[in-house]
Design goal:
The structure is a single chain. It is built from 11 helices and no strands. By secondary structure, it is mainly α. Helix 3 packs antiparallel against helix 11. The protein starts with a helix and ends with a helix. The model has no long low-confidence stretch (mean pLDDT 76).
Length: 200
């Protein structure tokens, strides 16, 4: 595994690929892309890409905000018609969970959801399908996107100064991906166990 060489070899197009994945994760209802992990890894490898980490943060923020706005538009235009209880990806349960998350925390939930796997994907269409005003959503969406990208950027910069991290960037990046996906796997296993327990 040579993540440093791969990103350095691709150069700036590598960041465009990462940005595209962030947009898809936040706007096109595909929750299984580790966008936060990719941004974190890109910041760690900013030197190899010969670009300032601030540009990576800015690109991540714009991609996250734009993707969420796209998701909101999809929710406002199509509502819940695309979601079904038995769907493989577009499960109506995900929208219900995003709705409950919003009702529990209010508008700041749009910011908090950015840091929660799966919820950050479906919170935008859920808000679009609800009575939330676009202006309210856009304000909190911008705050959430900037906060999320900046936090990942600062974490990457400070951790990159640690000799052990700098010498094991590829493995650290892989670890971040695993940690990001782990909550999804744990939630899926719990639901599966719960369904088996409730089956007569």
């Amino acid at each position: 595994m040579n993540l440093t060489g791969l990103l350095a070899g691709l150069g700036l197009p590598a960041l465009l690929i990462v940005a595209g994945m962030v947009v898809i994760e936040n706007g096109l209802l595909f929750p299984f892309l580790p966008g936060d992990s990719l941004i974190f890894a890109s910041v760690l490898l900013a030197g190899s890409l010969q670009i300032s980490w601030l540009w990576i943060v800015a690109l991540a923020a714009v991609s996250a905000i734009g993707g969420a706005e796209l998701g909101f538009t999809i929710g406002r235009r199509f509502g819940r018609r695309w979601f079904r209880p038995d769907a493989r990806i577009l499960k109506s349960r995900y929208l219900d969970e995003a709705d409950a998350f919003f009702h529990r925390y209010g508008p700041p939930a749009i910011v908090l959801a950015r840091f929660v796997p799966i919820v950050r994907t479906y919170i935008s269409p859920a808000m679009g399908a609800s009575s939330v005003r676009r202006r309210t959503f856009s304000l909190w969406n911008a705050i959430g996107g900037i906060s999320w990208a900046l936090l990942l950027g600062v974490a990457g910069v400070f951790l990159g100064r640690i000799p052990f991290v700098a010498a094991n960037i590829e493995w650290i990046a892989l670890g971040v991906v695993v940690v990001s996906v782990l909550p999804i796997a744990v939630t899926a296993l719990r639901r599966r166990h719960s369904n088996k327990a409730n089956t007569p």
